Amino acid sequence: RPAGSHAAIVVLGADSPAFALGDVLVAAGGHVIAATPALVDELREVSPGEVMLLAESACEPAVLGAAKTLMAQGIEVGTVSAESPIQLLAALAVHDPHRPLRDDLAAMAGAAANARHIDVRPHEGRFLGVAAGIEPTFGDDPCDLAVLMADRIMTDDAELVTIVSSEVLAECIAQRLYATRSGLEVASIPVDVGDMVWLGVE
Length: 202
Fold this sequence. Notes:
This protein is 38% helix and 31% strand. The chain contains seven helices and ten strands. Strand 3, helix 3 and strand 4 (76-82) form a beta-alpha-beta unit. The protein is elongated.
C-alpha cells in the first residue's frame, strides 16, 4: 500500500451470509477475509504498517486477539465492531485510507454506531426481525416483517432506506414503503441471501 495509508479489512465469520456482499464491500473500499487460524498472517500481508479492522460481531473475539498480536509486533491497529452488514457499509462509506488511523477509526466507528439497521432472517420456521432499541419481532413473511420493523424505527425525517436482499424481496419492500411514505428514497443492493433482509435507515 502507498506510504501513509492503511487498509480497511472486513473480517467475517467463515460461514457468514455477509460474504454474499463481498463484491459490494470491496467496491466500497474494503478488503474482505474470513476469520481463520491464519488471520494474523493474512492481516500482516494485506497491510503491514497499520490496519483498520471491521469485525463482524460473531468473530469479534478472534479479531481482537489478532489485533493484540499485531500491536505487540509494532503494527498500529484500529477496530470497529458491526452487528449488521449495514454498519459495515456505513463505516466504509466514510473510510479515508490517507488520514491518520485514529481519525479514521473515530469516523468509521461513529458511522457504524449511528447506522440504524434491521436484520430479518429465517428462524425456526418463521422469520425474526431484530433492530437496536426494539423488541425482537416474529413474522410469517419476510417482506411484511421488514416493512413493519422499518416503520418502527423510521422517524418522520427519514430520507433514505437501503435494502440489501434478493431482488424479489427488495422490490416488495420498496413498493410497500413508497406506498406509505411520500418523498422517501429507497436504494436496493441485490444479493443472493435467500429470505434474509438487511435494512438501513437514514
